[in-house]
Structure formats: structure tokens, C-alpha cells
User: Fold these one by one.
Assistant:
Number 1:
Amino acid sequence: MKRIILMLMAGILLMLVACGGKEREEANVQEQNDTNVAEEMESRVDAESRTQAGNTEDLRAFASGIGTAEESAEGSEITPEQAGDTPVTLTNEIEERCPAAIATARAGLDYGEFTHGTYYSETCGMERGYTILLPADYTAEGQYPVLYLLHGIFGDEYSMSGDPNNKIREILGNFAADGLIEETIVVCPNMYAATDPDMKPGFDAESVLPYDNFINDLVNDLMPFIESTYSVRTGRENTYLAGFSMGGRETIYITLQRPELFGYVCAISAAPGIVPTADKFMTHDGQMTEEEMRFADDAVEPEVFILCCGTKDSVVGEYPRSYHEILERNGADHIWYEITGADHDNNAIRSGLYNLFKQIAFDKAQ
Ligand code: FER
């Protein structure tokens, strides 16, 4: 009898140990799935620095903006009292800087996290990645406008979402919490729409071609995928496009080609190459002539089309201003402004995103 009881106890003990192990395993899997995009970004940067010793920071600066001193606010939270309980006074005036209260997380407010997904791109003939920010209380029954947010050269779907200094989550979350905009989905694609998986971006005509192919991937593959997978409010009024640098250049290009798709657009620190030119990096054949850089005569134009750039941009210099001048000459309505003192950096990105959503808020309040 004693032996039977002992064997039974040993059996139960074994089962308990096995179950505990399984739970731990499940917890690990869950953790892996939940690995947030910022962490993924960190590990990629580490991997990059091992292979490209020295210039990782440079590449990252191209992809999502040079870091700025204001980053010290990162990670800190402020109470609604500190943020000021009077929400943004809603005008359609451009402000050069994104106010700190809008770029700072508020205690007790849930901003959601970026997650990663993939879709099949007919354009590229391969599975491609994107990161997506769903509002914290996203439900399949809701209906959310979507911002497509494009990274700079050498970037990928993690560049914009993995850089906490862009303050995308804070800006959108705070605007929505103040009732100024609807809760909005943000999709960060990989803008390098190559058909050859071995192709890599670089400063030469052939290596940048896949960026100009992104319009096809976006319109024919990614947007239909997003619209059929998530609860998206479709139509140009609810579809926004913004991009930084190379992403700014493609934002302008896509908007001019397909203005019926995007109601609210912001090109931040747009890179050269829309029209023929040569800069310190390379010679650009141009996506179109200066004369062609306009909306078609019968085109529906965006409700808001912003171009902006820092006055101290060390990478794209005066190119954004030149785009503004060409568009103005060609009668294409847009807003142009400069961010005093900003470089090719996060100040410019935060400012562009802030002003885009401020304009959206103003428009929708009318
Ligand atoms: C160039 C200058 C700047 C160029 C691209 C960039 C392709 C892009 C910079 C960035 O995305 O940060 O001549 O050519």
C-alpha cells in the first residue's frame, strides 16, 4: 500500500512539473509574439552595427531622422494637469514645433503598440512586412481612418515605428483623447519595393528604382490588404499619406499620380530626385520634368497637402523648398513651411505629423 501511495505521489509530481514547463513555454511564445517593435528595432540596429561597424547611426538617421536633444523627454509621462487641461485651440494655423504636451505620453492613457505583419505583394512577387499601430481599444466593429507613413532611404517597416522620438503614438493618441481627431490606424510599410530580394538601396540610379515602384505595391497590394484585414474607413477623406525624406519624395510623387486616393498629405524634408538634378550623393534622372510636377487638370486635389523642412537640413538642404516653388509655379495647391533650426531630424518629423493632424482636426470640425 505504502508503495502504491508513493508511486501515485511521484506521478502527480511529474505531471505538475511537466505542466509548469508547458506554461512557461507558452508564456515564452506569447512574449515572443508581443516583442514590441522598438525592441525589434534595437536588436536590428545591434545586428547592423556588427556588420557595418561605425555607420549604423548614419543609416538610422537617414531612415527615420537624426536624433535630437528633445529626446530627453522620452519615456517620461505627464499628468493631464501638467499637459494643461485646455486642449489645443483649434485653428488652421501652422505651428513650427510640435508642442511638448502633444508629444508627451499622459499618465493613464493607453497609446497602443506597433505590431508586425506581412502581406503578399503581387508587385514584388514576394511576402512583404509592415508594422501597424491599432488604437488601444481597437475593435473589429469600429471604423478607423488610416495613415500610411513612409520611411527614409535605407529604412524598412521598422524605421518609423521603431523610433520612439518621432512621437507618432503620442501625437495621435493625445489628439484622439482630446476629441480632436478620430482614433487612427498607422501603417508603416517597407518602401523598398524591389522584385529581386537581393537588391539593396544605395545612392545610384538603379538602386533607388524600387522606391519609385512602391506606388504600385501600395495601391495594388498593401492598401487592399489593409482595407480587407482591418476595420478601416476607406475613401480619400479617411486615407492619409505622410513620409520623411525618401518617404517624403515618394509621398509627393504618389500624391501627384493618385490624388484621388489621399485626402490629407504631408511630405517632410523630401529628398531630391522628383525632377532631374545632381546633389552631393548622386545624379538623379528625375521621376518627371518640372513642367509635369502638377496635378492633372481634372484631378481631385488633396484637402491638405503640406510640404515642410528644417531650415538647417544637412541632408536634403533646399530641395523641399524647390519642390514648393515648382508646385507653386504649376498651380498645385499646398502648404509650405519651415521649422526654424531643425536639421534632417525628429523635430521636423514631429512637426510635420503634428501639423498634418492639426489640419485634419480643423477640417473635420468645420
Ligand atoms: C539623395 C539625398 C537624400 C537621395 C536620397 C536622400 C536617392 C534621402 C535621404 C533620406 O531618406 O534620409 O540624393 O537620393
Number 2:
Amino acid sequence: MKAATKRICSVLTGVGLGLGLSTSVWAQASLEDVMKERGLTQKDLLAAAKTYTPTGGRDEYLAFSSGGQSGHVIVYGIPSMRILKYIGVFTPEPWQGYGFDDESKAILAQGKINGKQITYGDTHHPAFSETEGEYNGKYLFINDKANPRLAVIDLHDFETKQIVVNPFMKSDHGGAFVTPNTEYVMEASQYAAPVSHDYVPLEEFNDKYRGALTYWKFDMKEGRIKPEDSFTFELPPYSQDLSDAGKKVSAGWGFTNSFCSERYVGGIERGRPPFEAGCSQKDTDFLHVTNWKKAAELVAAGKVHKVNGSYQITIEQAVKEGLLYLIPEPKSPHGVDVSPDGKHIIIAGKLDSHAWVYSWEKIQNAIKNKKFEGKDPYGIPIISMKDTLHTQVQVGLGPLHNQYDSKKCVVYTSIYVDSMVTKWDYCQGKVLDQLHIHYNIGHLVSMEGDSVSPDGKYLVSLNKLAIDRFNPVGPLHPQNHQLIDISGDKMQLLYDMPLPLGEPHYVVAIKADKLKPAVRYKSGWDSRSDKKSPWKTRAGREKVVRKDGVVHVYGTVIRSHITPEIIEVEEGETVSIHLTNLERAEDETHGFAMYSQNVNLSIEPGKTVSATFKADKAGVYPYYCTEFCSALHLEMQGYLLVKPKGYVAKAGKIEEGQKYTKADYDKQVKTNIDTQAVINSVVGFITSHNYKDFPEVVALVEDATDQLGFADEAKKKAEAYAAKGDYQNATLWAGQHWQYQVKTADLGLRAKTFLEEHGAKKVEPKKAK
Ligand code: CUK
Ligand code: CUA
């Protein structure tokens, strides 16, 4: 018994040594010593205490950051600022197998434009799904500015489920912003372009180039955008910028601002002054006010025509139906942000030093009384600025974006040129506090800041540049996200986090306990379509089927082998490998990588994924599991053998490198008996406790039961060979029996430790299984 226990223990607890020494040295130094040695002040310590999260600790908020040009979404915790995940969205993400398995390739293929696969994204604005204006923790949306696309991420598994391409735009920026019940996701164009996909000379800019604002219909139940029920406003060729949806009193309406309402077209090479000169001449640009609720009714009533296969509300129709208005706003504005109660709309003018507060009540009155100061060249009524402005406040040079606090009337504005955050009161129009941040702030985010009830607490400043702030890593620097405590009257800077993935424009943060992510899939699950996979395979049902010119391999993975371990095909055949992870235990993911075929899968517990490729060259292609899943992980391997056409197998069998005798067999059997005793004692512990109250443990026990089932089969095979005197096979199968036992014991010990750590109670002794 002792020998076996030792062997298992060394297998199971072989890692994790060497920590003791450094901890004890650390413990000997006093806080003062450390402060002195590292040059820290009391203020630093206080800041550290507010962000430091001890091992095993959790964050109160999760932030979802745009991954900029990487096309990913970055997830990090607040206040610890620890990065938790990169979610592949518009671009492949190898660790998750995103863009490598057939299922996720199909998602990326939805994002093709004019038949071309786009392998980057310029992500800007993530947005959470909402119910009555509150984040509901179900979905996240994000836009791609360069290729006007929108993606849907399911927060149940943090996977991208859908990409839609805008049929009217050639770029976007004013998305993703959601309406209060996620009825629609807003996406506004940025650079005006012809509505058709044809060539249109710039001389026809005013007539043929257009902006657009799409309201994508979202089905919360299905978790998918419905392009067929979505509609788009045709807009003048002003460069539309950011958007926001009305809330509470302003629900049903949307706001989109613009720059370059001069409709200037540059052309340095034609001797024309550049865009930047011509686009900043007028003192004001236009805020677009759209009535989506009424527009949706028109669509439902069949009164809207389709263009490019999608509903388009023309400017003419929008004006006639009272769906579209313009309000002058300070020139070259950037952020437009509706207050939590929906009564105010704050616009920051990036070439100005003011933030402008508009009153929804005043806007509504003007619309009701048809009080307009005129029309734009496209016939859209213009409501005057003075009839709608509540107040304007000097907040600093180059204000960009606004985020609301939990405290009434309090808002934070990012000040790009002055590199600071201004906290101010938008009801009374006065500045409350200012904090210098490191450099060139873009967006900023407060906790649940876009909802109808922001939490305040923390603010993250998304700084564009990180000059001089971190260890140099070459000409391209990371971005700098700075954590700020906003719980008191004065803002306090807490922490700098370098973010080394693209230029993240915007971040949204949600209370962590609103998210309920799964730890496993239902067995045989296609996570991208959220359905049972047609390729799902159960243990013992692995098979190879040749159909319609494709070799389908129905395989499984479980600690520590891939079934099948040998795949044989003929040169030129198309191979489709479908793998199901049979595990249920948390985090028990297997990978699958194959030499030179660009095959790289991630198979989380329960998941089924496929890799299809052409075996166009005869040869030997090793494959293996890429996740360190168990002690015998390196042995989780196999071979794809691609035989030349018409190859005739020679007689003979695989010669094993090692010969076994009866003594070897007996020794292995003895080990197995001892190991079984260990298993029995662990099982005894588990079943004598209320383990069924712990779903994590139930999953482990189910996996252990599976492994033990396999163990029995291996044992029977070993005994059958031994009976025939074939000790070679008998010893090998007895060894496999032991492998299954080790896995059973591993799972059992993990379950036992979990029960001990979570205060499981002893129950009436039950018969051990
Ligand atoms: S944008 Cu980049 S800093 Cu796309 Cu919201 Cu303002
Ligand atoms: Cu499975 Cu390593």
C-alpha cells in the first residue's frame, strides 16, 4: 500500500515546492523596511491596499475592454487590474482555438466583406445588454470601425457567437450602444460613402455619399442579432461620430453627433488643403436626434423599403414622419452621453474647452411645437442650440468623453489635451475636482457607468500613450489604463496597468456577481451554434466513417489519451476530425495540435469541435494535447498516417521496445490492488459527506466514475491475456488499468480537498461504491 500511495502522491503533488523559502524571507522584513527599500510613501501603501487582491481573492467588477486593432476583447478585474482573458472576436485567437476549429471559422466567415476574409478588426466600443437600462450580464456587443461590423459575445461562456456586416456603410464608429431593453444595438457610420458598392466620383459627394445609422434588432432569447428585422436611417454625408441611446424619459430616441458637417473633401495631391483644415471651419456641427421607436413601427407596418436587402429609412421619409432632427453642437465634438435619468445629454467638444449640457425636455418641446431655426441642405429640421441647451461648463482643453457617477448630477469628463479628468456638476454647471492623469486620456469608464444606476466607486482612465511610464519595450508602447478611486470628494489615483494589445478605445465594467459563466458544456456541445453537435461522440463509440469523399473521425479526449491514437488515410483525402471532451470537471480542457496542418483546437469540458483539412501530402503527422491536463499529459498523443496512393501494407507488427514477464505483470497487479485501496478510502470519505450539495464535486465524482469504469475494462483485458500466458499484453493492459486508477484517485483527491476546504458535513455512512 505504501509504495503505491507514494507513487500516486508524487504524481499528484509533484509540483508546488520552493515557495516556502521566499515567503519566510519576505515575512522577516517589516512594512517600514519594504517601504524604505522600495521608496514607497504612505499614500502609495494606501493606494496599494485599495487594489491589492490576495491569492484566491475576487474582483468586485469585471471590465471588458476593446482590444483595438487586435480585434479581441480584453477582460480584466477591478480593482485588481488583473487581466483574466482575451476573447477572440473579429480575429483568430489560438489559445481558444478561435478561427481554427470549423465551428468558429464559420463565425469569422460571417464577417467576410465582398467575399474577403478580414483578419483584423479595429474594435472601439463594447456595450452590455440591458434590461430596463440595467446591465443584465447576458451579452456583450462590440464594433469594428474599419470594416463596419458588429459582434455578439455570449457572457455565459465568453465566446463570440455572431458577426454582422453593415450593408450600408464603409466604416462605423457610433456603435455599439444599446437601447434600454436591448431592443436594438446602434451602429453609426463614420466616413461618408456611397450607399451602393459602386464607384462614385468625389465630385458627387454631396449627392451620392451618405452617412447611416443602423438599429440592429437583437433577440435576447436567442442571443442573436436579426438582420432581417433591423433598419437603417439614411443620413447626410456629415462624418457621424459617437452615439448613445435615450434612457427613461428619453427612451425610444437615439443621439448621434458628427464632425465635418462642412462636407469638406480634402485632396492634398490635388492642391486642396487637407481634411483637417476643411473639416474644422464651421463653429458648430450637428447632433442627430432619431426616433427609433416610431421608426420600428413604420418598419413593422411595412412602410419602409429595402435597399441592399435591408430596410432603409430615407432622409425624405424620416423628415416626413418626424423621425430625424438636427441640433447644432460645438465644433468637432466627440462623446455624446445620456445621463442616467435620461434628462440630459452631455457633449464634449474636442476642439473646445467646454462640455455642453442639452436638456431633453427642451428638445422635446421644440419638436412638439415645431420650433425650428431652419433646415439643413437635405431638408432636415434644425432645432436651435439656445432652445435646447441647459448649460455649458469650462472643463479643460480637449474634452472627449463623459462618465456618470452614482451621485446625482456628477459626471467625469476626460480632458485629452490637458491630460486630466474633470469632475463636475452638470445640473448646476460647476467644476468639483480635477485630477492630472498620466498622459492623453481618451475614454474613461466608471462602474456600470452607462446604466440607469451607475455605481461610481472606481474610474479607469484609458490613456493613449504610455511614454516614460513602464520599462521600455521598443518603439511601440503599451497603453496605460489608470485606476482612480472616486468614492470620496477628491479623486485618488491608485494604479497604472499597461495594456499590451491594440489601442483599446473604450471599456465597460459590470458588477462581477451579475455574471454567471458556465464551467462546462452539456456533453457533445457545439458552443458556437449553441446546439448539440452532430459530431458528438460518446466514450466507446469512437469511429471512422468515409462519406462523400471525407474521412470523418469521431473521436474523444479524456485524461490522458486521445481516441483514436492512430488515424490512417490516403494521400489526397479530406480529413475531418471531430473531438468531444468527455470530462466534466472544471477547467479540464484538452488541446489538439497537429504538425504542419494548421490544426489547433481547444476542447473545454463537454465541447465538440471539428478540424477539416486536406491530407494532400503523404507522410507522418504527430498530434498531441496542448494543455498540461494531467501527469501523463505528454503521453496524450497520436499519429495521422497519410499513405501514398495505392500503398500496400507490408506484413509485420509493431515491435515493442520493452519485453514483459510474469514477474512484471504480478508487480503491476500488486500496485493496482494497493491503488484500489487508496481509491476506496477516498471514495469512503466522499460518500460519507454531503458531497451532493456541491455541484463541483458531483462533476468530479462523475468523471471519476467514468475513469473507474474504463479501469474495469482494462483489468478484464489484462486478466484475459494473463490467462493465455501473454504477459506482454497482460502487463501493458494492467499498466493501463493503473493509469485509469491514477486518474480516478486524482479526481477523488481533488473532490476530497474541495469538500474539506468548503466545510462539507459528515452524513450517515453509506455503502462505498
Ligand atoms: S473613440 Cu477612441 S478615444 Cu472610438 Cu470612442 Cu474617443
Ligand atoms: Cu489533455 Cu494534455
Number 3:
Amino acid sequence: MQDPHIWQTALTYLRGVGPRRAEILKEELHLHSYADLVEYFPRRYLDYGQITPILQARVDQDAVFRGKLGPFQIRPIAGGKRALLATTLYDGQAGIELVWYQGWEWVRQRFSAGQEVLVIGRPTSQKRRLHIPHPEVIPLGGEPQQIHKFLRVYPVYPLTEKVRQAGLDDKRFRMLFDELYRLTHFEREDPIPETLRDRYGLLPLTESLRAIHLPTHLEEVEKARYRFKFQEFFLLQVLLIKRKYFLKSQYTAPGFVQVGPLVKEFYEKHLPFPLTEAQKRVIREIRRDMAMNAPMNRLIQGDVGSGKTIVALFAALIAIGNGYQVALMAPTEVLAEQHARSFRKWLAPMGLGVGLLLGSTPPSQKKRLMSQLATGELACIIGTHALFQKPVVYHRLGLTIIDEQHKFGVRQRAALWEKAHPYRPHNLLLTATPIPRTLALSVYGDVDVSIIDELPPGRQPIKTWVRTESHRREVWNLLRAELEKGRQAYIIYPLVEESEKLDLKAVEEGYELIRRAFPDYPAGMIHGRMSSERKEREMQLFKLGHTRILVGTTVVEVGVDVPNATVLVVEHADRFGLSQLHQLRGRVGRGEHASYAIFMAPDTLSENALERLRALAQYQDGFRISEIDLRLRGPGDFLGTKQSGLPEFKMADLIEDQAILRQARLAAEELVAQDPSLQQYPALQAYLNEYASKYSLELFTA
Ligand code: ADP
Ligand code: MG
């Protein structure tokens, strides 16, 4: 094997590049070194065996044509200062013009009219006539001079116009790989250990690189692509699983070997309803985690209304029953109050108090709560960001529960966890935003995930309509009928960050419209520009039934429980993601009454876009909807910039390649379990270091 440092060589030293092109490769494609180039993968392949009839040539579609060259012509351009070379390729049915604007002397020398050739190129159109600028022409039966000339399959790399203009067109760019291969034979240390390659049927790295860049047939390209997809998933998974191991081995948590007396008492005497099977399963998972001396880091994903709160209560009962404290943190005061109400109702019969600590709690009360926490007199505290502020000291914090965990930053979650110093508390994270399982493996790979995939019995499905503007009257009639029955309604407007002002206007106008259309029913308004006190007050007025219609943006929080609200109208539903609409739908259907979710769209909306919305009418299951949403929008948009700590995959596709992801996860788990520090795998370590620095992954746990 040659000196591995050769891979750090700057591209300017590669024959065919030079300083000017090196600069352009850097700027346009972010390629600096030999290593970067060899990892720059083709976008697709042209199969030589696959000849396109000239009649089927299309603008901007690379293709291989086969035919006979016509006579060559030289035509003056640029006012006679220069000249182009043109000829026509005929395949017996049609002809297409081939044009060279410069550097064509060699073409003229090498080819002549009547010669049988293959032509590879990308047709463009000028004055509605197709021609191929600077095609690659390969004489049939001629002397092969480059490795590529032996091949049947041509890689096509994603190049930019600037790169092409600098003289690195498809052909010359491909030739860089001939040269690189001559120098290195693509010999690199393989990050995937041989044992795993054997088990999972993966080609070695060197062979894969050769197959990707210098393929002889498409089957080997497929095998190499499989290997690289696997590698991309594998590297990320090893990183995440290593991290999970690190968290478990680095910190100690109190192990609650006994479940404690409170769980039994609650379960036998005070359980308000039979638990669903899913709830029981998740409680068992939590119970197992909390028996360990390593901190639990478990995320519970469950649709709105799936009953996460009582699952969290069981976790709390384990900790309190073992003499430790519990802190439950929610992103808003309304949600914190709601949780406090549930917990108080459930815990009061057992003589357990629940503290509520909010930003707005009066100082004297805050002081009392804080002293009760410090002495251990208070076992259960519920609150907002106030819970992790500096002056708050816990006596023995054994469990933290974080609701709507994605509303908190990594540091905020960590600040709460540090309150248990010198050990770590067990951590339970809750989210009502289900994401598809395989995506969860990548986003939440360093925590354990539990899923509540069952709703409590007797829940009525929410009647879901997709309606266009011309059906407004029908929608208002339904709304009026519900209001007359004493029910309440939400009207939601989209919020797009770039045009906050416009959105505000839309909400305000919507509010006026509603007041005029329904003068007999008090309406409230809520949006992001209001102070948090104003927002809280508007929410309270609605909860208490003083306002009957609430017009607002999506600040109407996830998890807010107003059982009397039975109608949700979402304006411009086409501007929301499906998962978000599903979340919003969870605002209704929380009581005994039949509920309606109505998604409004402009009359001009395309049939496709309407079809997308209709998926909501078809499915009530958040996981199902999130999968559809992911397919439609792709992982980046789906997760949003905020939540996505996801690296970009070059080859792998989180949607199409889920089976490979599962395999890679398995392989990574085996490897890390067998050698958590990866000491036996220096090549893998080197790759991981590079990978981690390249993507500066924001890991889920801090
Ligand atoms: P979420 O998962 O959205 O936080 P909650 O915990 O607020 O859901 O539960 C939604 C409602 O369902 C609550 O009123 C809760 O008391 C009730 N609930 C939860 N589990 C069950 C169950 N197993 N049977 C009946 N009702 C349940
Ligand atoms: Mg909840």
C-alpha cells in the first residue's frame, strides 16, 4: 500500500488540474484534496449498452448515441475572430448536430466523415433545434487510450457551469479519476472491519471506489453503491451508539432496584382507568431502565392524546417511592399548570404534594418552594424553564421529565440534569411529534425510544374535511351549529417566519372577520408578537369558556387541553406540513363530543396539493402521517432546521434505504458492544474523527 498521506495532496498537483482549476474545484464543489475527489461520487451512470435513438434525444439529458459522422464544417463566430467546428451524427433515423466552439483541432484530426462512433453528451437547444456542444466521441473499433475507453459504463458527475467552463467537462473530469487511479490505485484503509464486510456482504473500500469511478458494468456499481450507503449509515450509527455507551458508563444514577411502595398503591387503589397495552409496555421499559445505575435516557413518542402523562406519573412514582425527587418541565406555563393539575389529582389521595414553579410565581412563593426542594420536603415539582435556574437546588433529584422536549435546547435540558450533581438523574423525554422509526434511529440514535402506538379506547375519530374557499359558507354553517350547541372553536392561521408582519395582518384580519360573522360569540386572538403574559391570559380565557372562538397562529400550543373545543379550522392549510396539521388536529377531539378538523385551501390549489391534504382525512395515526410527510418533503424540511442535527448523506436516502439503515444499525451495535472504545479499529476511528468534525453533529443528549 502506498503512503496514506498521498490522500492529503492538494488537487492542484493532479495532472489535468493545475492552480486555476484547483481554485474552481474548491469554490464550486468543495474539493481540496485527492481524498475529497475520490469521495466525490457520480450522480448517475450512462450505460454504453444503452444507446438512445437520436429521435429520443432530450434537452439536458446526458445520453449515449451511436451512428455515423457527417461532413465537418468550420464556421466563423465572434465576428470572424474565431471559428467553431460542426458535424452531424446520423443513426439511420435522424441526425443531431455536434458542435465544438474551441479546442477542436484534435477532433478534426482524429475523425472523418463516414466514421462509425459513439457520442456521449448532453443535448441543448438553440432556436428550437437540438445540438450537442462538446460531445465526447469514441471511435468504434479504434485504439483505446484511456482506462475509460475500455468501459461500457460512464459515470456522470454533478458539475457546475463554472467547472465546465474551466475546461473540466464531463470527459475531462472523468479523466481525473484515471489519473488518480494510476497514482493511488484507490488504496485506502477501510473503516468497515473485514468481519462486518463479510457478514453484511459489502465490497472492500478500494474495490468499491474503483467500481464507483471506473466501472465495467452496472452490477458492480450497484454493489459499490450499497457499500457506501451502508458506510454512511454505519459511521453515524457507530457515533451515536458510542455516545450512548459513553453516557451510560460516564455517569452514575441511583438504581431503583425495587419499584417502591407507591407504584403498587397507585396501581391497586387509585388507577383512574385501565392502561392501554402500549402504556403498560412503555412503563415496563421505563421500570427496567430506572433499575440500573446508569442514567435512563428514554424518549417517549406518542400521538397527541395517547396518554403520555400517566406513563410519566408511573416513572415519578418509582423515583418518589425510592426517596428521590422528580422535576417535570414543560415549555409553557399553560402546559405546566395542566400537568400540575393532573399530577395533583392523581397524587393527592396518596398524600403527596406537587409544587408548581413558574416564571410568574410570586417571589415569596418561589422562595418557599425552593426551600422545600432544598430540604427534600417536596418530592415533586412541575414547572417551566424556572426549574433549572441557578438558585434552584434539589435535595435528591432522581428523575427529570421533559415534555415537548424539542422545545428545549440541548443546554437547557442539560442544565436541569446537572441539578442532580454529583450523579445524574434518570431522564424521560416526551414528544407528541412522532417521526418515522428509521428516521428516529438517526435523529435520536443516542437515546432509547419508546413508542405509544395505541390510543385509549372510546376515542372518536375526528371528522376531517379538506375544503376550498368556495365552500366557506358550508364551513361557517358547521361552526355556527357547534357554537349554538355550546361548543368552542379554534381558527388557525399559518405563521411563516420570513413574513411575520404579513402573518400578523392575516391573523388580525381573520379575527375581525370572525367577529363580524359571529357577533354573538366572544372571540379571542393569540399570536407570537404578544407578550407571554398576554398569551397565557388569552389561553386561560378560552379554557374557562369566556371566549368561544380563538383565532391565532400555531402558538396555540401542542398539548393544551380544552375538551369543549370541537371545531378546528386551519386557514391556508396548504402552507403547513402534514405532521403539523395532524398536531393541530389534536387540539380538538379531547372530550366526549364529536369533533371536526377543517383544512381550508385556496380554490386555485393544484389537485396534487389537495391530494396531499386528503391524507389527513384518510389517516388519524400520527406515525402514518409522518411517514407520508417525510416522503413528500424529504428529511431536511420534515425535521426543520432547528431539530435536524442530521448530517447530509451523499448516497444513502433515509426514505428509500431504510432496510440498509437497519442493517447498519445492527452492525454498529454489535461492534460497539464488543469494543466500545474501538481500539481494535484505528481506521474506523480515523474516519469517525473526520466525520464528526465535518458535520459537528448536535447530539441529542448533552
Ligand atoms: P398526551 O399523550 O397527549 O399527553 P394525555 O396524557 O394528556 O395525552 O392523555 C389524554 C387524555 O386521555 C387524558 O384526559 C388522559 O387522562 C386520558 N387517558 C390516558 N390514558 C388513558 C387510558 N388508558 N384510558 C382512558 N383514558 C386515558
Ligand atoms: Mg401531553
